[in-house]
UniProtKB/TrEMBL annotation:
Protein name per UniProt: ER membrane protein complex subunit 7 beta-sandwich domain-containing protein
Membrane-crossing residue ranges in chain numbering: 162-180
GO cellular component terms listed in the entry, alphabetical order: EMC complex
Membrane topology per record: Single-pass membrane protein
Keyword Secreted attributed: no
Length: 242
């Protein structure tokens, strides 16, 4: 019987754990001016999984390096005060005894299987060895903490409802005399009668002054009273002119 080598057996049991993958995350250069060396010291990257999360910071080569990452599916997030980075999905699997790493673009609020473009992949050179891969992450934009003050805009001024109402009222005030002049005599008379009724309704005191109490007590009709009042007014004006 071959004696059992306990230290060797213990190392063999730990082999799948120790042969974990190494991931180096690099930042792709965006279209706008950007340099990874200008990132603040608080910038960090986190690999989220069902268990404990892995966290690292930028090294001297401006990369986020994760060492000894076990098998599983991870969500990579980069936390920065200045910029917004895209999240990535990184899968580490065992294919024919080799570590295989593959990363994709992922989207917040979507299903985990909804994957975008590939951001990097590699496998171990020989069976039983760990895989090292470079993953590239894109910068989505710059964080703005302050709202920019808008300058003067003639379009925003003209689109103001109060300004539009004022322009409409001014156009109606200036254009009404021209509309009245172009009316026919019958329509003009009706319009003047409506204006007179509105003025009388708006000023009850004037209506009381023109009210003929004696004629009302004598039983005269309102039309006759109005006609007699108008005739008396016209007669008085003729006498003043004469």
């Amino acid at each position: 019987m071959v004696p059992l080598n306990y230290p060797l057996a213990f190392v063999t049991l730990l082999l799948p754990i120790t042969l974990a993958a190494q991931i180096a995350v690099s930042i792709s250069h965006p279209t706008f001016p950007f340099s990874a060396s200008t990132l603040s010291s608080s910038t960090s990257a986190t690999l989220h999984a069902a268990g404990a999360s892995l966290r690292t910071v930028l090294n001297r080569n401006n990369k986020f390096v994760f060492g000894s990452v076990p098998f599983g599916s991870y969500l990579l997030e980069i936390h920065s005060r200045e910029f917004v980075f895209e999240p990535l999905r990184i899968d580490i699997t065992d294919v024919d005894g080799k570590n295989y790493i593959k990363s994709w673009q992922t989207f917040q609020g979507n299903e985990w299987d909804n994957k975008g473009e590939i951001r990097g992949e590699s496998d171990a050179s020989v069976a039983g060895s760990s895989a090292n891969t470079d993953v590239y992450v894109n910068v989505l934009g710059v964080k703005d903490y302050y709202a920019k003050r808008l300058g003067f805009s003639i379009m925003s001024l003209l689109s103001n409802p109060m300004i539009l109402i004022a322009f409409f009222s001014l156009a109606l005030l200036l254009g009404m005399p021209y509309l009245v002049e172009n009316m026919d005599e019958e329509t003009k008379a009706e319009f003047e009668a409506m204006q007179k009724e509105r003025r009388t309704a708006a000023n009850p005191a004037a209506a009381m002054q023109n009210f003929d109490l004696a004629g009302w007590m004598a039983g005269s009709k309102p039309e006759a009273l109005q006609t007699s009042t108008d005739e008396a007014t016209n007669e008085g004006q003729r006498r003043r002119k004469g």
